[in-house]
User: Fold these one by one.
Assistant:
Number 1:
Amino acid sequence: MKNALYWFLVGASLIFISCSTSRTYPPSPKKINYYRKKITDNPSFAQNLNLNRLEENERQAFTYLQAKNFENVGNAEAACDRYKYLAEDKSFPNAQLALIKSLKVCDYLTLNVVLLWNTSLKKIEPAFNKLFLKNSIDVALKKGQFKYYVEFSLAYINYLDTKEQKEKYLLKVRKRVFNNEYQYRTKELLKKVN
């Protein structure tokens, strides 16, 4: 009986451990700086590196640094691929940040963007909110989604410091919006700021 209980607990423990979806921790700052330097200084470094031999957290950090580098040099397609990959990796602690950054570099279909805004990006971590709003404003304007453009813009003014900046920003938003309903909302908010 004791033997059966022992094996039951061992089996249950193994199942519990294998089913956990814990997040990874970042590699050491020394390792991150090493990868950052190698990625920027030597473009062929990534081709020669076997990602399968890296620890999971090192692979994630490397992929994120690579995506940032591609974004900085203007290779939006490569940056998009990496950000999307990381966004789908639920063990990556900054998966939501990767998804938010993908808004800037990926050319999503309008339907996909609206779907993201209403599902995966419905609840944003506070630390990422300003970047989310900024990227979403740009995408909404580019895709002609004025409802979302106004909604995100109205939330974004909370991140502006002075009354003058808020007024200037709201006037810019108001000029870009053609729909009277949205112009009215920005006009009312402009009155409240004054």
Note: Residues 1-20 have pLDDT under 50 and may be disordered.
Number 2:
Amino acid sequence: MRIGLSIDSFTPWLGGVEHFLTLSESLRLAASESGAEVMILATATGELRQSLGSDVRVVPCASIPHTDPLAVFTTQTRFTQLVLVSDLAAGARHLGLDLLGPHVTEPDFPVPCWAYLRDLQHCLMPQRVPEAERQQRDDQLRRLASDNRLMLVDSAAVLSELIRRVPGMQAKTHAIPQLWPRIPDRLPSEATVRTLFGLDGPYFVASAQQQWAHERHEIALEALALVGTGPGVGPKLVVTGRRGDYRQPDHRAIIDRIIVQRGLGRRVHHVGYVDRTLQLALIEHATALVQTSGYAERPGSAGVAEAVCLGTPAIASGIPVNRELAGGELIRYFQSDSPQELAALLQDALLRKERGVRRSAADLESSNRTAGAQLYRLLTDAIHRA
């Protein structure tokens, strides 16, 4: 059996490739135990498209230029080869795939496909999504609902909402089993992190690659202002990720205004986009990770899953998807629109100074292997139903 995984749906959004890395690796482990093969496909663009030379070319992952968006995947994956294609239909036909996904199938596609719905943000938070994007997502949802292909979503919360909005989806839609992020056994030391980012004393971290408005960092700032011993004095908040949200252009100005009004200029460190190793080290050495999102695509997003793996306490908004992650006592929840509740938990974290047990890479791989086996069964069932 030969299963194709397309990375195309994951490269456009920050964090997508990391998610694809864990998904593809867990599936590879499960498939190999059954004698099946998993192949990674990517539609060639830019310079790679110009040099393709044919409809399909299998290339070493190491040959992908570091400037190409695919390099985020190829420099970290355990897959040694990548299949570059002019289009997915040509790739599926040439490789003799038994199943391909995720992909929204066009008529006469040569092999069975499965679909992936990233989120329903345009339904749940329509005010934050431009009209043209809402229309595009609605069109995609109607296409997905019109056939009987297997569809995967990232959480039970999205699954429940999807079934409520689109009757008849229940039989073919499943939530992807919990996949844990990859965590290196060795990360930069606390001294290195503090020197690089100019940190002294306790700090909290809000971890992201892009600071979207729906992450509601204003809640974290208002809470931080309530925790301290005087104006400008108290624990720090390190915020990672590129600033700005094209869907709410004034978001950055709103955040900056709160920082000034609450006297937090010396306590809030916007450090921008940092590579994953440093991002993980910031989480590992923090007093706690803070996640204030009003919406999350999957359990453990915005660094919560990474915090649990590293033994760092996490304080997260009490939205349903956040509560799906099995984090035990390491995760504490607050009413999602209450800076006062969050401030109380921040203060408690400073007093407790508790840490959990750091999970080893082998332990995380074992958990993902189990999840991969469940995912593999879903995909093979889809082949048999096709």
Note: The chain has two domains: 2-180+365-385, 190-358.
Number 3:
Amino acid sequence: MENGLEPVSVLTPRRAAALSHMPETTKWEIELDIDRVETILNTGIFAKPESMQHPLFDSALTELVIRVWDLLAKATFYANRVAFTDDVIIKGVVMDVTALIKFARDAVCHVVDSWKSNNDALKSRVFFNAIFGKGCVVEINEESIESPYEDDVAFFFGQQRLYLRRHIVRAYNEAVAQLRPLLDRPRPA
């Protein structure tokens, strides 16, 4: 039960009870999260580098990671943890994509606390930076903050790197695939 999370392969009495009846309020929260994530992604705010100048760019990213984290937490509780590690920097509390998105969520929601992080080998605070495509944000103390992918957007929180497609969208899709069958009602058209 590392980090307070039960292994997904263990059907505990708590998990069995949760699976037997998901509260209606939780179902509505899941549907609202799905709707908001789709709405944010469909705005195109993460489609081009000029969008970084948009006054709501940071707000869009903040709500996106809050909503996706909520879905990931519910998937962990009601189904299975989304635990892929592709392109995840395993360091400190970050052990998989769910932990990475929680790390980013905590950084955007608790700005003062994120400055106290000891997870930053750069000995510098690089916060809310993004790269559209391949590039390097900064090189400090023989360390760099960069993205090797031309086809993705990377958001940086210290040395942690969160990709839009490779992490956020993929984790979102995996969580939704697990949660949607548990909603027990037809999806609105």
Note: Residues 1-9 have pLDDT under 50 and may be disordered.
